Structures are given as C-alpha cells and as structure tokens.
From TrEMBL:
Source superkingdom: Eukaryota
UniProt-recorded Gene Ontology molecular function terms: protein serine/threonine kinase activity
Protein name, UniProt field: non-specific serine/threonine protein kinase
PROSITE patterns according to UniProt: BULB_LECTIN, EGF_3, PAN
Annotated ranges, domain Apple: 340-415
Job description of the protein: Involved in sporophytic self-incompatibility system (the inability of flowering plants to achieve self-fertilization).
GO BP: recognition of pollen
Signal peptide span: 1-23
Native source species: Tetracentron sinense (Spur-leaf)
InterPro entries linked to this entry: Bulb-type_lectin_dom, Bulb-type_lectin_dom_sf, EGF, Pan_app, S_locus_glycoprot_dom, SLSG/EP1
EC annotation from Swiss-Prot or TrEMBL: 2.7.11.1
Residue runs in coiled coils: none
Keyword terms, alphabetized: Disulfide bond, EGF-like domain, Signal
Amino acid sequence: MERLPLFIFSFTCLFFISKFSVAIDTISPNQTITGGQTLVSADEIFELGFFSPGTSNKRYLGIWFKSILPQTVVWVANRNNPLTNSSGVLAIGGDGNIVLLNQTETIIWSSNSSSVPKNPVAQLLDSGNFVLREGNSGINPESYPWQSFDYPFDTVLPGMKLGANLRSGQNWYLTSWKSEDDPSPGDYTYKLDYRGLPQIVLRKGSDVQFRSDPWDWAGSGIPELYRNSIINPIFAFNEEDVYYSFENINKSSISRFVVTHSGSIQHIAWSDTRLEWVVVITLPKDSCDDYDICGTYGTCNININDQVCKCLKGFTPKSPAHYDAHDWSGGCVPRSPRMCGSGEGFRNFKQMKFPDKSSFKKNMLSMDCEAACLNNCSCVAYAKSGILGCIFWYGDLLDIREYSEGGRELYIRMAASELGKCFCISSEFSINSQVTMMG
C-alpha cells in the first residue's frame, strides 16, 4: 500500500501530542486525528474518531452520535481493514485525499477521489456527513469531491440516499455488519432494484428475503416502512436519479434506518424521555413479507387464520396436496389455459402488493394500458400508473400479497371462460359478441 512521506507523518504526530483543547469539526493538511482525539460537528451532534466495537480489540475509524449512550456508530471507514492497535492516524495525504494510516505509515483506507481540491479540508457536518471539500469555499454538497454519504454501510440518516445516479453509476445501498462486534460486511444487503418500478430489496447473499412495495414516478404506492408520523419521505424517479431519502418532520428529532446483522430492516427513533432507541417498524414484519412465500400466482393475506396463502381467483394449486399441507412453493396455475387471441380479458384485483419484476412504460394514457397488454401475448398483467404511464408484467407473477387496506389495483390476464364471456355465431355472419358477467 501507499506510504505517507515520513516527514509529514512525524510532523503531524508532533503537532498533536496533546489532545484538542476545543472541539473542532475540520482538519487541514497540517493536522491529524490520533488516539482518543475526535472531530465534533459544529452543533455537537456527531463525533468522528477511533473506536472498538463491543468486545473486539480491533480499532476502526467511525462516526457516532456524540450525546447518545451506548455509542451508536452510523458509519465506518476501514470496516474491511481494521487497526490492530491504537496507532491509527487520520490525515490528508499528499494527493489531497483523506487517508488513514497504521503504525507502519501504510495507508489502509483512503477517500480515493480522482478529483481533489487545491486546498483540501475534511469536515464532519451536523448531518453526520464527513466530506472532503475546497478549504476556500463554503459548504456546497454539489462540489464535494468525496463524501461519506455516498458510501453508506448499515445506516441511512436524514439526507442520505438509497438508490442510484443513473448517469454516473453511483449506487447507494446498505450492507449489514457481520455481528455486533464486527463491522465488516455481513450477509445482508438492502439495495434499490430499478429495472422496473423502483423497489428496495433485502438479500442474504444473492437470495431475496424481502422486497418493498414498488413506487412510480408520482410516488404512488409508497412502501409502509417509509411513511409514518415521524418522517417525510422523499422519492426521486427521473432520467438522472432514482432513490429514496427522508427528513425528520421535527428537525430536532433523531431517527435512522438500519439493516441489522440478523437480517431485518428497522426504522429507529431516539426517545428523549426514555433515553433509548425505539423501534418504529421492523421488516419483514410477518410471514407475508417473506419473499415469494405463496409461489407463482399465489397471494398472501395475513388476516386469513387457517392458511395465509391462496391461489388468485381464476387459478388453482399446481399441487393441491402440497398446498393443503401448507407447502405453497409450487404455486398456482391458470384454471383455464390462456389462449392468446381467443377473447381473453382481465380480472381486476384490488388492494394488492404489485408482483415482482415489473416493466414500466412512460408517456402512455391509462386507457391504452389494457390494449397494449392484450395485444402482447407475453403480457400477463398490467396496472395504471399514478401519472401518464403503464406498468406491465411478463412471465409468471410472484410475491403478491393482499392488504386489508391500501394497496394497488392489478389487472391479470384470464381466459374468456374465467371472465364469463360467451361467443355467439350469427346466422348471417360471424361475430365475436362478448357479454361480460360480474365475477
């Protein structure tokens, strides 16, 4: 690894033999952070320094809430390369990047920005964002060559993003700690999937564990996790960005999202009266949140007592014996085989969680959605977007659930016989006369 020149290392160590006499939030090229020294944001909300998690003897550079005990770490720099003793030094290197050095003066972590300021400083902001910026300019998020908010680990704070910048390729997603004592990357990731409608997906390795309700360009279908009385959700879905962010309604309140090492997603808020973190909501919260629990064309309803899974109307279990035994993995199949071009239509299902693997087409009138799907034999379902656009599904539908309130309207392709349609032949000429019955 790269080494910081010895004379710079020696000078900076001498410069900080004693601890800071006053709290500061910024370091410049002639300053360092070592040992028990820390940076503290201007309003003393966040603190940056070295810590050892739990019972571990390893040391990491991290950011935590200054006034909250026990220590709650929200970001870690060297989670893949811990220090083995107390010799770590945080500095600005000769190339203008923020660097972390071990006892042999080897760089074990760097901001690694290809574009650095002429007069670089590193600053810890009251948002919890640790930024590299031009020392002669003010705080301007658009001009940061590097910021910790672009590299989240297990926590999302107000102002951070989950999603992607479609032009730069920047991705913002969460990775769990390996354990309470080990911040190295764990088994779980929480990442935005924007191949169709945006949805945030929890995975263990490559296996999907849970996915949120998707949302559209208008923010319709906001997932439950991201709407409550504590926060204002922020959704972006445009040509340049697709992401979720949030702000606290009460600016003085403290809340965060975290993916735990045990595989749950939590929205947590700090209680000033109880002096502890309070879990606002945890996902997955019930068996219907388990990914694809009911198989293809199966729908999950947690309010059904005897069995939560059933086949959608117009479908039947692929293996009735397995389905009755609560083994729903085989899913369901159409009761009447669909034959494209034979008078098929759509059944309307309400209060649904949209199936996985959607496809979104913008700039289409809602009245055109049905015709577009009907004229494509591969299209098995459609929905209308909150604004000009249509949502389509191709292939088997999976991971559907039914809500007692809320949810969306989904139109699923059915054989004519399932919709109560008959086809009459006139004695003078052939016509297809469809009589639609309620059902």
